[in-house]
Design brief:
The chain has 10 helices and 16 strands. The protein is α/β, with parallel strands linked by helices.
Length: 379
Amino acid sequence: MERLIEIAGAGPAGIVAAINLSKAGYDVTVYDENPDAGHRFHGDFQGIENWSSHEDAADLLKRIGILVKPGADFIFQPYKKITVFDSNLNMTVVRCERPFFYLVERGTGPGSLDSMLLKACLDAGAKVVFNKKVDMLKRGGIVGIGPKAADAVARGIIFNTTMEDTAAVILDDRLAPKGYAYLLIHGGKGTIAACIFREFKREKECFERTLQAFQRVFPAVNIKGAKEFGGYGNFFFGKPVFENGKYYVGEAAGLQDCLWGFGMRYAMASGYLAAKSIIEGIDYASLLKKELLPMQRTALVNRFLFERLGNKGYAYFIRRFSSGNPVEELRRHYNPSFFKPLLYPIAAWRYKSRLIDKGCHAGDCACVWCRCGSKENPC
């Protein structure tokens, strides 16, 4: 059996795969074209969602080989309260006994998720080589190179503040077309951003409106030392997840939450499943079909329905979301039902990713991301 494994991409998906393979005795090398893990992020706060599964996100991390030690060296903060605003800035405070999400920091800093995962990877015995782009995996391996196109765009700021810890969302197409605006504050640091799914040319205007709206509803959000950031996510379907010895994980496999872009859970779980496939000799596509693909398809149907709501529909959604058990309500929407598979063909037909797959998909292609036949890569 081949014990040498190469991984392209040091994001959460590739690193989780490396951790599990190294613990199983494989000789693992991870390559990344950037100078450090988390390089494309900026210290902004994000959330690992905790509503799509009965398994708590903290338990998931333990199951996939990550020992969670939140504290000074790793921010992993549960949030059980979210303040939600409609387009008229009517406020609804939503609480739940179970955390809605776990706040993490993304980037190269010492408290970030990316730095924690990198340390765990090195401690497990894997080698990580930065500043090296890998275009070919001739022996096969794992591809976790992140998004290849922008199907959702985030623009925002990170800043210092004296405001108390807060999680807030605004649903308003004037601020974030077919998406959402959010505010996250933890330990004197904050993130404000607009996550938009349409009208990308308006991203600057959308963020300015978002900033004004949050300053209006939270006068205490004093902003100091603001730094701008931007990011994007990619959702696509139909590309093989295993091809010519290569296992595609995370956004390189199109594995994302098509509704709101909470993709970290998808990424880390897919990295674990790729490692499990190699270690146990189980078909990777079958593992994804069982554990992740049904939720991804449901998320696409959710995106199809959400885009038809508009501001009045968002207000109705907020009322439904805030009644009863909010986490259970979200879980019900995020998981397959009798009704949503019937809508999937329509949602898939209407959805068009900005990613155009020009791969040859030939049986002997060793490209990490196939460009065979292009001028840059005429092989």
